[in-house]
Amino acid sequence: MTGPQRRPAAHRSTPAGVEHLPMRPLWLCRRCGQPWPCGAAKLALLAEYQEAPVSLFLYLAACLHDAIDDLHRLNPSVTGSAADMFDRFLGWPARQTHAYRVTIVEGTPAEEPSS
Predict the structure, then answer these.
(1) How many angstroms separate the CA atoms of 113 and 110, rounded?
(2) Residue 58 and residue 80: Cα distance in Å, rounded?
(3) Coil, strand, or helix at residue 89?
(4) How many C-beta atoms surround the C-beta of residue 37 within 10 A?
(5) For residue 76, what pLDDT is reported?
(6) For a FRET experiment, which of 1, 36, 104, 112 has its CA 20 to 30 Å from that of 71?
(7) Helical packing angle, 39-48 and 53-74, nearest 10°
């Protein structure tokens, strides 16, 4: 028995027919044909993982690993640079979430530069 390929998630708020999921091994969006994650997928992922941004990064890191393997197997010369692949999967959420922003607490002593 075969069913629709779905990403692991606890809850879904949209019907399966309208989700922007990756089509492997090409890593294009099943719905709009853009490189995945497409704009709609990014918005859906941000909403889905709003309370768990580290989980979003872990999920996307696994996708990045799979995409590199799949795309390299299909055509090694056009897989893309490591920087491009990283930005495609992990760069955008770092710019959209507060998961890795540094917070400076006032009143803590600054480190002295070593001489």
Answers:
(1) 9
(2) 21
(3) helix
(4) 22
(5) 83
(6) 1
(7) 150
Q: How far is CA 7 from CA 12, 89, 100, in A?
A: 10, 15, 24
pTM above 0.70, yes or no: no
pLDDT in tens, the chain (115 residues): 444 444 544 444 444 555 999 999 999 999 999 999 999 999 999 999 999 999 999 999 999 999 999 999 999 887 778 889 999 999 999 887 665 555 566 765 555 555 5
Which one, of 84, 86, 90, 82, lies nearest residue 45 by Cα?
A: 90
Q: How many CB atoms within 10 Å of residue 47?
A: 10
Could you give the maximum distance between any two Cα atoms of the chain, in Å? 68
